[in-house]
Amino acid sequence: MSEPVSICVIGSGYVGLVAAVCFAEMGHRVICVDNDKDKVETLRSGGVPIYEEHLPDLLGKHLGRGVEFTANLAGAVEKSEAIFIAVGTPQGDTGAADLSYVEAVVSEIARSVTEYKVIVEKSTVPVYTNEWIRRVLHRHGVDPGLFDVVSNPEFLREGTAVIDFLHPDRIVVGAGSERSAQLLQRIYAPLTSGTYYEQPGALPGVCSAAHPARILVTSAQSAEIIKHASNAFLALKISFINAVANLAENVDADIEDIAAGIGLDSRIGPRFLRAGIGYGGSCFPKDVAAFHWVAQQQGLNFQLLDEVRRINDAQRDVFFNKVRAALWTLRGKRIAALGLAFKGDTDDIRESPAIEIVRRLIDSGATVTAYDPAAIERTQAVLPPSEKLKYAKDLYEAAKDADAVLILTDWKEFSNIDLPRLNRAVKFPIIIDGRNLYKPDEITDQGFTYVSIGRPATYNAQQGKPRKLIF
Ligand code: UDX
Question: 232-311 has which fold?
């Protein structure tokens, strides 16, 4: 593979840890820095604090060889040509991203720059952060000839983070100088030249030696906006299909057919058109708000983004009202909640619509038994078990004597439920599916009433179709 680069990655969250391990997989020498000493210890012993496919294997493969972990930022910066900043940029009160972690890290980097370094912003940040990083370095007296600042946004998704990183749709590099652009091109050369994909043991994905990853070099501001605009656009697609789903349901149309019909138009594409209970996670809600704030700072009212958020919030009400419409009163009802994570294949519950639904059910007097293949531990930290909330070790235990079963997360396991077994477990055979994981007929054939999103509810023969009730 091409010439290795010495890289420092600051922050060992989803983006930082995946980037550090994947850079090592690409043949570079990586030092990953975190100020959380316990986390550093865990990582040093090969422990992975997040649930992410391929990450434990890759860490095991490169630990102590291509990648090491430390809490000593200055030492890591000194030894590295490129310094990637991948610390959190949480949402502040105004919707703006809170950049205090970025600033703190930049101030620390400033003390250790004695020869030319490329400082790369990998965290999702508002436009002009690149410029601010440059200014902070100047203020700390760093010679402008000793550094360049580059924006290199990350587009990985949780759950598929490693494959997304190694097989990206595109690599975006916002660089103000030829020298820094060239270093980033060298770093990504194994992916853009395709040599990585020819390597024995390379993880397979959409890219190959014949179709390597593409790199787009832009200005720093453009790169910063590409990241915000990409996430905002994907969020918009989801809100759009959810709005259409609510219309479809009113006229007895089927949103799954509609999404397929829209998605077949190659200008639109089929992805991110799954109707449901709205988007969650650590990125979309935060980035839609942050992008809106960025526009506001420029005197522009990007109202469309307000609407994206409003539809998303309302989608939780839509689902909650379906539960009420199916069960009438909630006080004293036993409800099985399948799924707590914000989407399948992750243990992340940040901004999870599932968690909000569970909270609302409990507040309405229902008793909830929840099950998730990976997110129970994290959920228990914010919603401890109580009289009103129990956790089950599998979905059938969760469904025992339930008045209704709710599907809240799109885990594969929930698409393959043993329906006769579920039917034997529940008190009443009602499934309310916030992720449209089933075809209505296959559920009703098993004796269930099935309520989903953007499709007419289907009823088992015994219950019959009730009249539409308004709440
Ligand atoms: C997202 C972006 O996809 C990624 O490029 C960026 O780097 C980080 O933010 P992530 O938050 O991991 O990634 O999850 P993603 O798979 O995009 O899903 C986000 C939310 O949208 C989830 O709650 C998911 O359930 C929901 N979603 C997604 C839908 O409701 N419908 C869809 O069709 C797709």
Answer: N-(1-d-carboxylethyl)-l-norvaline Dehydrogenase; domain 2 (1.10.1040)
